[in-house]
Hints:
The chain is an alpha/beta fold. Helix content is 42%, strand content 14%.
Amino acid sequence: MNSHFRRHGxxxxxxxxxxxxxxxxxxxxxxxxLLNEELIVRVKCLRNQSNLPPKEALLRVRExxxxxxxxxxxxxxxxxxxDFWRDDHLLELHTWAQGRSNYGFALSNPKFEYWLxxxxxxxxxxxTGDDCDRRxxxxxxxxxxxxxxxxxxxxxxxxxxxxxxxxxxxxCADWPRKPGTTVYKLVERILDLHAN
Length: 196
């Protein structure tokens, strides 16, 4: 059955909150909002301007934690694209994520659309951002960075996570150097909580 993300009526108690800082202002926020609507977790996306160094995302999440703090079971994640960022830009994010068990860092190489593409196919042969865009528009004609919920069912999210995990073998210690994504690690954490 292909169940779609949708909001259920009634009050729910959130088990855990995921604070996600992601570069960009549309796609990642809309995608993670889908998970927020259906699942028992709460996903809070902090907007980060596009084309700013990953360090800006790290500053945003640190500021949020300083002001709001995280509860014992909450998690904070930074989600960025490889794009043209140098390894030294990304190393600081990776180092930060290693500092606590409830911090995380997820990267898509070359960009987040690679993760979206995995909802529909294995992404074999995809090497560049343009490759991602071309292939994704075959599945989402007219794709313009906006996420339409009807295209991203729970089953497809699980499938994307399985495909990403299969490609990340052996699992990278920090971030993918070739086309791939570690967004599945964050999504698996969210989905695991939903299943329990």
